[in-house]
Amino acid sequence: MPRMTYLASGVDLDAAARVKDLIKPLARSTFGPQVLGDVGLFGGLFQLQNFREPVLVSSTDGVGTKLKLAVWLDQYRSIGKDVVNQSINDVLTSGARPLFFLDYIAMESLLTERLEALVGGMAEACREAGCALLGGETSQMSDVFKPGVFELVGFVVGAAEREALLDPSRIKAGDALIGLPSSGLHTNGYSLVRAIFNLEEDRSPLHRAYDELGGTLGEALLEPHRGYWPLLEQVLPRIKAMAHITGGGTEENLERVTPRGLTARVDWSSWETPPIFRIIQDAGNVDLAEMRRVFNMGVGMVLFCAAEHASNILRAFPEAWVVGEVAEA
Amino acid sequence: MPRMTYLASGVDLDAAARVKDLIKPLARSTFGPQVLGDVGLFGGLFQLQNFREPVLVSSTDGVGTKLKLAVWLDQYRSIGKDVVNQSINDVLTSGARPLFFLDYIAMESLLTERLEALVGGMAEACREAGCALLGGETSQMSDVFKPGVFELVGFVVGAAEREALLDPSRIKAGDALIGLPSSGLHTNGYSLVRAIFNLEEDRSPLHRAYDELGGTLGEALLEPHRGYWPLLEQVLPRIKAMAHITGGGTEENLERVTPRGLTARVDWSSWETPPIFRIIQDAGNVDLAEMRRVFNMGVGMVLFCAAEHASNILRAFPEAWVVGEVAEA
Q: A304 and A236 in contact (C-beta within 8 Å)?
């Protein structure tokens, strides 16, 4: 056999070292004094401070096939923000402050510009949430992905005082449901969108402009997942529980939180479905019930609070509104 | 357009719910009293206890293209153990006790038996390390992977007292390097192995038996990444630093830890390279230097300790031996 090398088999260790140098300053831009050491060790170090009885809250998720949209539009910064914000939103449903984030990226071969945009988006979202981009892994995986595609996964750890954890068991009939607007599809429903517009065969629908979107379909679809932490930090003490509206839609995610014997009644007439969802529904002739099971329909996060606190919370968020109430089941 | 559904686009929400039911009891088998609530919320909850000045240490990694071997041999329990143990080994290089683990699995469609074996392997490795399998995500990704392939990523969080963190700056000339044996390739070098044996074209070499392996090539290659936490817990106070031998090989990983001005001198004659590495080297006509840069060559973890502590540590680990020493650079 001719002499075989790792490089010839598809793994470039020197490229991996160069990528680390590229990522370091981006990660460092997110570091506060609680980050010990520097990036590049075997593990990231974060000193937990100012908690008496800390509960760590963690979540992981990928961006699903939204990453195919990013590849087709050759724009990666946006899904970098997605992968951070979706996981931060998950941990803050427990009342936890985000502490640090790690990313995992796997590619056929390491594409420097793509990685720089991805990590740049992650670092921006981390800075906005006061969360450290503490570490990650960039992996070269040959013969795994279809052409152009890659994998992007995020992992976040937050913390809350045990006594300040949000507690859905305190939910009662009569509590108000307050909706916070989503910025678009966030990170759910992209397989359905790809099928409806036949995007695997033809990308041209992405470049079509719509008046009601104020831009192209592709731009609206790539809009990053909104991060709610900076908004919610101040009102946490007045909230009983939160539902992050992801896969499964509004009603299923509300049910995950609502105690047995009660039900979260959504008043679907309380808001107008944003245009992006109506465009998708019309193009795919999708049942309304299916739309509501797959997409967030314009509401990215729902807060549960006592009815007497609703007006106070609404004053803090001019964009929010009452989307329903808790009732006996 | 005919009526379009999420199921027809490749995402089965009911299958996702069934998979959650499958995973729950496996995850619960790893829970201690520090895990609050139950699996299935938006984030996993872990109460941090018995630390005065806790430093959280975290790491993420995939199993690389070892997962292709698992697919070809249709055995998944082993790489479930890999994805846990490799990340635990990373965080324990800081002196941290593993606390909890989260997994991310992405597949074209959810294959129940495969998921059960994967999560079963993860739960087993978590129990061995006293680490909670706190949560995870199982994602359906159509049109991303080549046929049969999937993605598997792990995240682990550990903790150490700040004053007990391993501190490589205390490494001095004359310190001993103690090697702990690996169980095989662990999770590095599989792209090279696939190329050498031309496995993308023909899987038959995996079924060839070798006397020196005491089994087939495939069995030796799938041997799970060894987890060192249960071994090391007792000797941590006598160790200055640790290097987990992963991508880049022994010397590069030792350099990551060794302070400037010093060098970690490996005595390659102090052990016999295990047969699996010799078989790979011969089959691929690989340079010895390249072998040492890609594979662990039989040593999975290297401990740095003062020379006077070496014999004490060696007594605790009958399998360990002195693999070198620290010298002036």
A: no
B38 touches A: beta carbon within 8 Å: no
CB A19, CB A110: distance < 8 Å: yes
User: Is pLDDT of B205 > 70?
Assistant: yes
For the sheet containing A132-140, what is the strand order?
A132-140, A97-107, A151-161, A54-62, B44-47, B35-36
CB contact under 8 A, B194 and A143: yes
Asked if residue B193 lies in contact with residue B68, where contact means CB atoms within 8 angstroms, the answer is no
pLDDT in tens, A135-187: 999 998 888 999 889 999 999 999 999 999 998 999 999 999 999 999 999 99
For residue A94, the model assigns a pLDDT of: 94
ipTM over 0.90: yes
Of A6, A60, A141, the CB nearest to B104: A60
| A205: Cβ contacts below 8 Å, ≥ 6 apart | A197, A198, A199, A217
Q: What is the pLDDT of residues A272-304, one digit of tens each?
A: 999 999 999 999 999 999 999 999 999 999 999
Percent residues over pLDDT 90 in chain B:
82
d(CA A278, CA A285): 10
Indicate the residue type of A61.
D
Q: Is A259 part of the contact surface with chain B (CB cutoff 8 Å)?
A: no
Q: Who among A99, A139, A146 is closest to B146 (CB)?
A: A146
pLDDT at B39 over 60: no
Average pLDDT over residues B216-227: 97
CA proximity to B243, closest of B153, B324, B156, B129: B324
- Please judge whether B3 and A47 are an interchain contact, meaning their C-beta atoms are less than 8 angstroms apart: no
- Rounded to the nearest angstrom, the minimum Cα separation between B27 and chain A is 15
B1 pLDDT higher than 80: no
- C-alpha distances (whole Å) from A103 to each of A87, A170, A222, B92, B200 are 11, 35, 19, 19, 29
Chain A from 53 to 112: CB within 8 A of any B CB: 53-62, 64-65, 67-68, 89-91, 93-94, 96, 99-100, 102-104, 106
- Whether the CB of B196 is below 8 Å from some CB of chain A: the reply is yes
Question: How far apart are alpha carbons B5 and A12 in whole angstroms?
Answer: 42
Nearest C-alpha in B relative to A100: B58
Nearest to B68 among A47, A143, A285 (CB): A143
Rounded distance between C-alpha atoms, residue A267 and residue A73, angstroms: 36
Return d(Cα A177, Cα B165) in angstroms, integer.
Answer: 45
Q: From the list A96, A144, A294, which residue is nearest B145 (CB)?
A: A144
Q: Which residues of A touch B144 (CB under 8 A)?
A: 65, 67-68, 145-146, 149, 151
B48:A58 CB<8 A: no
Kindly give the residue spans of alpha helices, DSSP state H, lying in chain B: 13-28, 66-73, 77-92, 112-129, 190-196, 217-222, 229-232, 249-257, 275-284, 288-294, 307-316
Which residue matches tokens 């088998």? B29
Residue B322: strand, helix, or coil: strand
- As a residue count, chain B comes to 329
| 3-state class (DSSP) for residue A90 | helix
Cβ under 8 Å to A: B residues 284-323: 284-287, 290, 293-294
Token pair for A160:
């809350």
Q: A244 CB near a chain B CB, below 8 Å? A: yes
